[in-house]
Design goal:
Layout (H helix, E strand, L loop, with lengths): L11 H7 L2 H5 L39 H13 L5 H11 L3 H46 L16 H25 L33 H4 L8 H20 L5 E3 L5 E3 L1 H7 L13 E11 L3 H9 L1 H7 L4 E11 L10 E8 L9 E11 L5 E7 L11 E3 L2 E7 L5 E11 L9 H5 L6 H18 L15 H22 L8 E2 L9 E7 L8 E12 L3 H9 L15 E9 L7 E8 L9 E9 L2 E9 L1 H8 L12 E7 L17 E12 L8 H23 L1
Antiparallel strand pairs: 1-2, 3-10, 4-5, 5-6, 6-7, 7-9, 8-10, 9-10, 11-12, 12-13, 13-19, 14-15, 15-16, 16-17, 17-18, 18-19
């Protein structure tokens, strides 16, 4: 079928008969040209003729076999000939340059279609493979037998394996539906199954979920097509304008709420921005908008670098961003900076608890410097580019404005505006999520402020040696802080409800069920080799968050909850302050245990706190390795298995009365352990190991409850 350029679609024949070669040379390049057929440029004949003949217009004859063979040969060498090559080829073959141009366009279209058909065939084959795998799992569940007697398995004997099979089947169904949607549109790449084969249940071994064993939707998202890029640019420009107005507006767009912050007036928002790029809010999604400002000890250039570099961004905000990926950079900016930078990204946002589902987003990030010197970075969802996916969360224009201040400081105004389906959030976390503190602007700016103080601390020099525990060596401070940063990132990555994780619940009695998953570690100098079992549980405590944080970070009270210290005294050997709050610090602890095998055990611990949450993360470390770190050596080769606590308020925290139930000023505590259960990466996980870790975490929880209730 013959298609003309978008700019001349109403007059195709006039284009061919009246345009000169100079006029045609002004047409857009191939990226804006549409496909055109060669054979259909001939005058129709026979039954194809119009019964009401019109005045004849000039037509082109069909190409000869020689002309086609010559152009085929040239196409293999150069599928995109320039004007000079097309003119030379037309002279050799006795064709018009326009005919040569259209033939090459048709040929490229034909090759592209053939390639897409091949990809579709591969995707369909993968789809069938997943369906077959799913059927095998169903059959395994249906034909399950008792390993002792060979008869039909009772429900109790199959509890772990049956539950795992059901989880796997649900994931496979989701994966099949997603791949089918992709295949129907000829986009994306084949996605291979990431599920390992189920081993049969026996008396000694069990199979639990694996870290990075879930459906990884973030990495399977395709880069945007060329045809979508103009729409992406238009959406980003509109989002930047909306973000700027939201950051600078006051009442009636923003109104005070009961949480000592501001809320977005939805009616006023619809009047102010009637032509919203994302369209109306989908059914089932709840709007969540917040705005906060903070002055941080970092210049605007470094802040922009953090926000536009996906690795730095996910590191600084590791408690909020569980995973992030840049899919394509559409523009790197101008004049050697990020002004005008545009990149398509995917990210997963989390609360440090397996009880709160993560929020996955596919969005474009745009950076711009305004004429008044203020920088702005905005995100906006691109859900319209993946209509086959049902979105449970999408970002309306969100981001920040950064104003340069004297002495290396910056003022940051942050906007978070999302639409989300949060019905799967556990009841004890609903007050926190509904208040906007879990994912809102206040959490982003509080984290940024704390991380800027941490960075300033790592660069500090001339530290006074007033305290014997204080590390004064700049090299030692830098190495120890880098090691602690890796420890905290590893903890945050493994504690949430990321879709990359496959948590298995060990019981079903309440919100404080223990969830476990495994990770196989090999050839990673930063982790001990073998099978690592991660266990986590979240629960509510009628204790203010600050009191709970001070108790858990204090080395003098550690023997009240730490079973592995065997009641021994804990001594602080080294200390690095990380900010104005004394709770923000990195410490090196030694456990003086009565058990001789643990008398030389060291513990690296980082505690951090702000108005939206607190962490106490720790890991056993080798003495020899820590001596290397303290002398300024490379910390990347120190093996770590982080464990620890994430403490969040149970709501806005405005209640001044007694703490009686969730939302009245108590704490939401997540306890997470990582235990090396076998040094062989190929070993099977034993039921005894799972039972031991389950007992360890439940005993720790009970000790904490008893200690803080006194």
């Amino acid at each position: 079928m013959f298609h003309t350029s978008l700019f001349d679609s109403h007059h195709p024949h006039n284009l061919m008969t009246t345009c000169s070669e100079s006029d045609l040379g002004k047409a857009r390049d191939d990226e804006y040209e549409t496909k055109s057929g060669t054979d259909t440029m001939d005058v129709p004949s026979g039954d194809d003729q119009d019964p009401n003949p019109r005045p004849k217009k000039k037509g082109y004859r069909r190409h000869t076999q020689r002309q086609i063979e010559e152009m085929e040969a040239f196409f293999k060498q150069c599928p995109h000939p320039d004007d000079k090559q097309r003119k030379e080829l037309s002279r050799e073959l006795g064709l018009e340059p326009l005919q040569v141009k259209f033939w090459f366009q048709n040929k490229r279209t034909q090759m592209k279609t053939q390639h897409e058909r091949n990809e579709n065939a591969i995707l369909k084959a993968e789809n069938e493979k997943l369906r077959a795998e799913n059927n095998r799992y169903k059959e395994a569940l249906t034909n399950a037998s008792c390993p002792n007697c060979g008869g039909p398995a009772a429900l109790g004997e199959m509890s772990f394996d049956e539950q795992h099979l059901r989880i796997e089947n649900a994931r496979l169904r989701e994966e099949i539906d997603r791949i089918s949607g992709i295949a129907s549109k000829y986009v994306g790449k084949p996605v291979t199954s990431s599920y390992s084969n189920l081993s049969p249940m026996n008396n000694n071994h069990m199979h639990v979920g694996e870290m990075y064993g879930g459906s990884d939707l973030l990495r399977s998202l395709p880069a945007p097509a060329d045809a979508d890029k103009p729409m992406i640019v238009e959406l980003a420009v509109a989002a930047m304008e909306e973000l700027t107005r939201l950051a600078q507006a006051g009442d009636p767009l923003w109104v005070p709420n009961n949480h000592q912050s501001e809320s977005l007036n939805e009616d006023e928002y619809l009047r102010t921005f009637p032509t919203r790029g994302l369209g109306p809010k989908p059914l089932g999604l709840r709007s969540e908008a917040s705005r906060e400002s903070v002055v941080v000890i970092m210049n605007h250039i470094n802040l922009i670098d953090i926000l536009m570099d996906v690795n730095q961004w996910s590191t600084v905000f590791c408690g909020i961003v569980s995973r992030a990926l840049t899919l394509e950079v559409l523009s790197t900016g101008v004049a050697g900076n990020y002004n005008g930078a545009l990149q398509v990204m995917s990210a997963e946002f989390q609360v440090p608890s397996p009880l709160v589902p993560t929020r996955e987003n596919y969005f474009v990030r745009y950076c711009k410097q305004h004429p008044d010197g203020i920088w702005a970075v905005v995100d906006v969802s691109l859900d319209s580019l993946r209509p086959s996916t049902i979105s449970r969360s999408r970002r309306r224009p969100s981001g920040c404005l950064i104003q340069e201040l004297p002495n290396g400081y910056s003022k940051v105004t942050w906007i978070e505006h999302v639409e989300v389906d949060d019905r799967a959030v556990h009841s004890i976390y609903k007050p926190l999520v509904n208040s906007g503190l879990a994912f809102g602007a206040k959490r982003w700016v509080a984290t940024l402020d704390r991380q800027c103080e941490r960075l300033a601390s790592s660069m500090a020099k001339n530290i006074p040696a007033g305290d014997l525990c204080v590390i004064t060596s700049p090299e030692g401070r830098k190495s120890m802080l880098k090691l602690a940063e890796r420890m905290v990132i590893s903890y945050c990555t493994g504690v949430g409800a990321s879709t990359a994780h496959a948590w298995t619940t060990l019981s079903a009695t309440g919100c404080d069920d223990v969830r476990v998953m495994t990770r196989k570690s090999a050839d990673d100098p930063g982790r001990p080799p073998g099978i690592v079992l991660s266990a986590a549980t979240s629960f509510w405590l009628p204790v203010p968050p600050k009191r709970l944080f001070d108790f858990l970070r204090d080395e003098n009270s550690r023997n009240e909850w730490d079973i592995l210290s065997n009641g021994g005294l804990v001594q602080e050997l080294a200390h690095i302050a990380n900010g104005r709050d004394p709770g923000n610090c990195v410490s090196l602890l030694r456990v003086n245990s009565a058990n001789s095998s643990q008398s030389n055990m060291l513990i690296l611990q980082e505690s951090s706190t702000d108005s939206t949450g607190s962490y106490v993360v720790y890991a056993p470390v080798d003495i020899v390795a820590m001596n290397v770190v303290l002398s300024g050596g490379d910390p990347d080769y120190v093996a770590l298995l982080p464990s620890g606590f994430a403490i969040l308020p149970d709501g806005p925290g405005l209640n001044e009365g007694p703490i009686l139930d969730v939302g009245s000023g108590g704490s939401l505590l997540t306890v997470a352990f990582q235990i090396l259960v076998d040094s062989a990466p190929t070993a099977k996980l034993s039921l005894g190991s799972v039972a031991t870790v389950n007992s360890l975490i439940k005993c720790t929880v009970e000790r904490i409850k008893v200690a803080v209730s006194q």
